[in-house]
Design brief:
Layout lengths: L4 E6 L3 E7 L4 E8 L6 H14 L7 E6 L2 H15 L4 E3 L8 E2 L9 H13 L5 E7 L2 E8 L2 E9 L1 H11 L21 H25 L6 E7 L2 H7 L5 E2 L3 H14 L1
Parallel strand pairs: 1-4, 4-5, 6-9, 7-10, 10-11
Antiparallel strand pairs: 1-2, 2-3, 7-8, 8-9
Length: 259
């Protein structure tokens, strides 16, 4: 019988949950990260998620979080409703990746876990650039088994909200990825939509080109996060989309710990 592992990636905007075994992730969902969660409300959500997929019992729980207060609530929910205490990265399990940041504690757990997952999934690449389109857009560089650093840039959706919220006349809009070249906008919505979409695609390609010149080849460029699929269609640099990248890293790290 396979061991069932509950995976949780708690970010500033989205909380991703996954169910996995030793071989792969079988199901995953995304929930909004909210400050109004209680241990009871989150515990009931976990039970609904597991019941819907007919999963019981949960043998292990692996957690990666950049929201400490919600990580605490999540842990309380797991103990109360699933009778399992989560193992939290990086406190409870190590990864075989050398962190070369000047102050290693400054690197977010999600960035390190994404870097580890990238390296495990693509071992033949000498170097990897891992791009995460989250609340911030991050570019992380890995050479062999070394995390050497990266870049932190504005996030697409958070930038859009900041612009609309900080100006008197610009509206809140939904992004529409329906063109492969930017139109010269003749109305505000089109101007904002194409301005944001294509500026982030251009940022992606420009920064990847600059970073690639500093990294040994062969190079693999991996994208994850909410807009990874859409941006990749407009990018000439992204090689592969891996939407459950951090969950996959948690699965690999937790299975290695159990082995």
């Amino acid at each position: 019988m396979n061991n069932h592992i509950l995976l949780a990636d708690i970010g500033n905007t989205t909380m991703k949950l996954g169910i996995a075994d030793e071989r792969n992730i079988t199901f995953s969902i995304s929930l909004p990260t909210k400050s109004l969660y209680t241990a009871d409300s989150l515990g009931l959500t976990l039970i609904q998620f597991l019941s819907f997929h007919h999963i019981e019992p949960i043998d292990n729980i692996a957690l990666c979080s950049v929201v400490p207060e919600l990580a605490k609530i999540f842990s309380e929910a797991c103990k109360k409703y699933l009778s399992v205490s989560p193992k939290t990265f990086p406190v409870d399990f190590p990864i075989p990746l050398n962190n070369h940041y000047a102050n290693p504690q400054e690197v977010g757990a999600d960035r390190l876990m994404g870097a580890y997952a990238s390296r495990m999934l693509y071992p033949d690449a000498k170097s990897i650039i891992c791009i995460d389109y989250g609340t911030a857009t991050t570019f992380d560089c890995i050479v062999d088994m070394n995390y050497i650093g990266g870049l932190i840039c504005p996030g697409l959706y958070s930038s859009l909200n900041a612009l609309a919220g900080g100006t008197a006349k610009l509206p809140h809009i939904s992004l529409n990825f329906d063109k492969d070249v930017p139109l010269i906008g003749k109305n505000t919505v089109t101007s904002m939509n194409h301005g944001f979409i294509f500026s982030f695609a251009a940022m992606t390609d420009g920064l990847c080109e600059k970073l690639a010149g500093q990294l040994p080849h062969p190079l693999q460029i991996i994208a994850t996060g909410g807009y990874a699929g859409e941006i990749s269609k407009l990018s000439s640099k992204i090689n592969v989309i891996q939407q459950d990248l951090i969950l996959e890293g948690l699965r690999l790290a937790s299975c290695s710990l159990l082995a």
